[in-house]
TrEMBL record, chains A, B:
The gene is proA. It catalyses: L-glutamate 5-semialdehyde + phosphate + NADP(+) = L-glutamyl 5-phosphate + NADPH + H(+). Its EC number is 1.2.1.41. Transmembrane segments: none annotated. Belongs to the gamma-glutamyl phosphate reductase family. It comes from Knoellia flava. This is Gamma-glutamyl phosphate reductase.
Length: 430, 430
């Protein structure tokens, strides 16, 4: 897919993005000078302002919801879009939680004194200007602004058009709170306009330091292929659970069911269950019955289909496509594999590099799985649902990277920083 | 600049790159299983093979040199292209040096035990398949292959067409050595063909994990704008030396001259000298005389020009372009600034984000400079020439990143890896 030539963009969009980025850059130069206390005070002031302006936010959100319903938006999406008073309180609290997290900026990553007396240290510093492109859920607007501020970055936010009024209200409140703290409002920018405005952002290389897309596969693919600004790809999770011959079957049952059904709509939910052939008679009917009982539509290969058939469990025949499908729903592909090699080959062929799990009590099998599977997270005897910034103890999450550059897996505050080498000498020359 | 549509590429080039990438991927799956000892043995075997095949390599190189000379190649480039027996011995030794470095793969970056008993650890793992696109110097072919192998990556090498015969000979020798060690020859791939072959590599997203361009600004710009594969931008260095009012003038003189003249053709050489106005009468004529005496063409602003004029030092008037020019030669832009703020503003406007230096004995000035300058390396009282993997004690260098994502500054073995989260549990579910 070809990136659009900048020349085909409306000059007005380019100018608007340039202006937004220049103001964000100016703001970022102020942010780099702030102490942790300054930033935490501002985050709490933003939270207080959201609490105080709850009515205005809820009213703006009602406009979006009404427009969505009038346009035939599915109820699931309407629910994600909706901000009632409780949800506004929750997003405000999220800012207070971010204030309580340690400041990544200034952390010394490594350092040494060289033979010639030069003292070198690699220090975490803000990225500068970070663009976030995301879809309907308006809580991302507040999270991204908060994580950006805490990590010393100015952000340019581009939410879904369905949440336009809500995002405008949230950003207005947060910008005003920053100004009242004596900080630059332009630390939080909102990009409005059509698709060309997004394209202008994606090609603002040098003006924007990083773009993080959050949303469905289509959004992410567009950003990744069209952007000349560095991107961190997030999210698509075609996660597998492999139940090994040496599995503890109680653990396997609990993990398979939890990984699929605990929250099917998210990227760390499992989409495929692979079962070792030696477990086809005893374990397989049991796990299929449990999944089916939980409402999961089972897409089975021949062997799993036979086991389901024999046990009278509803199932459909898996197509080749099923093995690559991120259902994000109560559906699961189920296959029987003759051995660990076949399981590894299947995962290799179909993994999206997010999270892969093995259930086994065999140390050698676990070791091979964790070594050979190429993914952001590899689990042994644990549900795929644990790949999450909150679960990992990061206290926040800006997304889950499925790429290998810069960050891989759950991203929190340190992943929003870069580093700088500071070299102090006494007149050294080469 | 628009990326070319894949559809406009010759299908033969796409097929060739796909095949090369698939074989590299297959090889990378073997590399991930190797112990450090296996890899070091292979590196030493490659070095021995290069020593043994010196004659063949030198003969192949002679073809390239002859073709280059016949085509009117400048002597400087001919020198960079030439591999005599001593230089072959040096590149072989570089592989032995890499064997002596610690293995980055397997390093535990961080980890913890969660409240629920899950043991999580973030471990360095190879990227997978790394593409290197570079220009004339054939030693990069051997360095990149060696650093790739040590970090567990398969590499796809694309050298300059001027070094075609040399690169083919070097790669043939190294691949054969790998095979003799029982390792996959496809760990080292060579991409031949025209510009379309390079374009096919740049758009092989998913098949290639990372591309590192090394070379001039034109090459890097092409790779950065055309690639859909993640790229680490390297190299362009418009480095400044700012001599503050509170500078020790002996140090300032030594640093300015060293930064400009020690090796003018490299990216960490200084291109602009900024001098505080209070030093215009005493220090400025002295440093200009020294630089001029070392053969440096001085491009001066009005104030520096006056000082040069008064002291009878040859100089030319700086144009706006000079402040953005990476001369890579014995030329330097020289300006006088009224204060630290003006120096910071100048650096901000013209820095390429590589290395910036201040010379000062004033702690507050040093602190402001290191905090406010946004660059991969910021030096206090040291020559810009120290931004280098060897100088920093990394033992090797694959390039100097001037971007903020993944790696910033000198890149060595750890920067050629990514990480994987390994999560070990005992049946945990959410």
């Amino acid at each position: 897919m070809a990136a659009p030539s900048v020349a085909t963009l409306d000059p007005a969009d380019i100018a608007r993005v340039s202006d937004l980025a220049a103001r964000a850059r100016e703001a970022s130069r102020r942010l780099v000078l702030l102490s942790r206390a300054d930033k935490d005070d501002a985050l709490r002031a933003m939270a207080d302002a959201l609490d105080a302006e709850t009515d205005a936010v809820v009213a703006a959100n009602a406009e979006d919801v009404e427009r969505g319903r009038a346009g035939g938006m599915a109820e699931g999406l309407v629910d994600r879009l909706t901000l009632d008073r409780d949800r506004v309180a929750a997003v405000a609290d999220a800012l207070r939680d971010i204030a309580a997290l340690p400041d990544p900026v200034g952390e010394v990553v490594r350092g040494s004194t060289l033979a010639n007396g030069l003292q070198i240290r690699q220090v975490r510093v803000p990225m500068g200007v970070v663009g976030m492109i995301y879809e309907a859920r308006p809580n991302v607007t507040v999270d991204a602004a908060g994580l950006g501020l805490k990590s010393g970055n100015a952000v340019i936010l581009r939410g879904g058009s369905a949440a336009e009024s809500t995002n405008r209200a949230l950003v207005t409140v947060m910008r005003r709170a920053l100004e009242e703290q004596g900080l630059p409002a332009d630390a939080i920018g909102l990009l409005e306009g059509g698709r060309d405005a997004v394209r202008a952002l994606l090609t603002a290389r040098g003006q924007v330091d990083l773009i993080i897309p959050r949303g469905g596969a289509g959004l992410i693919q567009t950003v990744v292929t069209e952007s000349t600004v560095p991107v961190i790809e997030t999210g698509v999770g075609n996660c597998h659970v492999y139940v090994d011959a040496a599995a503890d079957l109680d653990k396997a049952l609990a993990i398979a069911v939890n990984a699929k059904t605990h929250r099917p709509s998210v990227c760390n939910a499992a989409e495929t269950l692979l079962v070792h052939a030696s477990l086809a008679d005893e374990f397989l009917p049991k796990v299929l019955a449990e999944l089916s009982g939980a409402g999961v539509v089972l897409h089975t290969d021949a062997a799993a289909g036979s086991a389901a058939e024999a046990a009278g469990i509803p199932h459909v025949e898996a197509t080749e496509e099923d093995w690559d499908t991120e259902y994000l729903a109560l559906e699961m592909a189920v296959g029987v594999v003759p051995d660990l090699d076949a399981a590894l080959a299947h995962v290799r062929a179909h993994s999206s590099g997010h999270t892969e799990a093995i259930v086994t009590e065999d140390r050698a099998a676990a070791r091979r799985f964790t070594t050979e599977v190429d993914a952001a997270a590899v689990m042994v005897n644990a549900s795929t649902r644990f790949t999450d910034g909150g679960e990992f103890g990061f206290g926040a999450e800006i997304g889950i990277s499925t790429q290998k550059l810069h960050a891989r897996g759950p991203m929190a505050l340190p992943e929003l920083t870069t580093t700088k080498w500071i070299v102090e000498g006494d007149g050294q020359v080469r």
